[in-house]
Fold these 3 entries.
Entry 1:
Amino acid sequence: MSRSNRTSQKPFSGQIFIKKQVGNRKAGPRRSQMIPHPPKISNFEITHSVQLRFITNAVVAQNITFQNLLDLILFTTSAVAPFDLFFAVRVGQIKIWSDPIGNTTSTVTLIYDGAAVGFVGDFRTITDTSMGIEPAYISAGPSGQSLASRFQVSSAANAFALNVPANTVIDVQLNYRSSTAGNAVAAQNASVGAIVGAVAFRGLDGLPLATSKFTLPTGLNQI
């Protein structure tokens, strides 16, 4: 063998190098995916949180029932037969202002006196008296264990009681809920000459406009 051939050959190192094949691997079977079911729906009912204002046009000393509260917002199916727009109600906060005239004083009282058999609320009495030019003022909500703080349907059960003079301003914060079962509740008192197919309002005593001791702000459809 020539010298040139001997020098061109490299000695064997004992290692064998295999070129790695580059390319896409054969795809394996795909994992099947579960089609999710439709999500739950929990808001078919109509809910409404609202603060309503009333001005007394006479002395008020009476209980306000859950029937009265549901009769505050009505739907007029005829000129004389309104229905409650909502099916259940609960009380949030009540605020009362009474301004004295001249050098007289003015006292307002709010009582959460709702009760049922085996279930009695706080029977809390809140009162305030004006002094000088400062009006009598109350801001109070029912306790968490009282009837007024839970959703109630139309009934003669007491939500709270008021004892206030004329020209008292009362703000009532309420939470309403409709029925999805087709329940229809007629207002306790008929109306006279109401516009058919309209939303209308009443005072806290549930009486028609002509006899109610509560006046709503100007411009609202009070029947």
Entry 2:
Amino acid sequence: MKCNGRTCRIWALLVALLVTTLSACMTNVEYARPGQTLEPREGKALVFGRIRFFYDRHEIFPWDASTFYDAVLDVERAEARHVWLLPLDATQGSWELRPDMDGTLTLWLPPGDYGLFGSKDDPSGPVRPTLAVVALLRVPAGRPIVYAGEITFAEDFREGGHADDAFGAGSVTTAPMAEAIRKVEAIYGALPGPPALSVWCVGKDLPSGNDITEFVSQSRRLLDVGCSASP
């Protein structure tokens, strides 16, 4: 895949962020696991939500290997999805995220602002993957549990439909808090308190450019207003 426009610029930003990150510290993402006690952790919040993908109106599950052979789709191309979560201050980074098979993501994260970067390209392949920022997230300080909502990325190829971004058009929904709590507690056990709501930021107004400082400033300005400029 050739990069162009925003994806090329964001690739340059991501490389610079990763270089900075690797020179500081690179750590594995810490996932919550079923059966573990969800006790509050000093300096970290339990962040939970879900990432969903639709390709030509079919939901796909890139982390469920059994779906890779669905004859309905050109699976090798359509189902490839890779995401990384990087703090905007680049003091630490993550390896590629591995949500549950249905896209549920439950992480322990330090407070701060994060960028979710995505690609359809195989990062282990011989060609440098094309990446783009696909979402932003703010983990507020002083809130031990955070509900980030459900991101949906949809590539719609009906007449007039098109996808300019890495995974197509992005949108975010939130379940009623009681329902969201029931779902996460069914997997992980009782939460140690009520969650704060701090949802993913997606949409056409996500920042782009070739200057890291401005990229971070634009991202934080968007998060400051609750991503109100995005759909």
Entry 3:
Amino acid sequence: MAEEIKIGDRVQVYLGSKYWNNEGWFDGIVVRIDPYSAHRRFYWVELDHPESMAGNGTRLISVLNPKNIRKT
């Protein structure tokens, strides 16, 4: 992550096909940030189109790995 991400920011999150129906980058908005450690955070993202990636109604996901989230 090059830029700091804040609540309300538009982001893209990367989801792999191992756990989701589709693999790729999905758009959403950051709705909450929880600390994990001194240098890492959980970013809670509400997805714009959850039906396209999960197929099970999952709308809110958390992202811990900084390489799987980017600002748009």
